[in-house]
User: What shape does this take?
Amino acid sequence: MALTEEQIRETLKQVIDPELFVNIIDLGLVYTVTTAEADEKNEAGESKEDVFIDMTMTSPACPAGPQLIGNSKQAVARLPNVRNVEVRIVMTPPWTPDLMTEEARDQLGIF
Assistant: This one.
């Protein structure tokens, strides 16, 4: 069964920014999620998929960057039929608090 962007984004909600204690989806750090069928199959003959994530950080020098990348890869890799996860850090467009969900703003006290 093919992975969906929604399924991957829901999984990425498990990844919590260790400084802000809000997940990376609600913070608006994840820009794009795409998949590509890999040339490998599981035991049931279903194709495995490679997942590509473009995300940003709240600042270019974010000390939590390596941890967020690693945790994102681990979370998505646990999904069925994922062969490889690639996380690319992009700084364009730059992150702003406007990208956060209303729930994240409430949690951080940003109105």
In short: The chain has one domain: 5-104. The first helix runs from residue 5 to 12. The beta strands are 30-41, 47-55, 82-89.
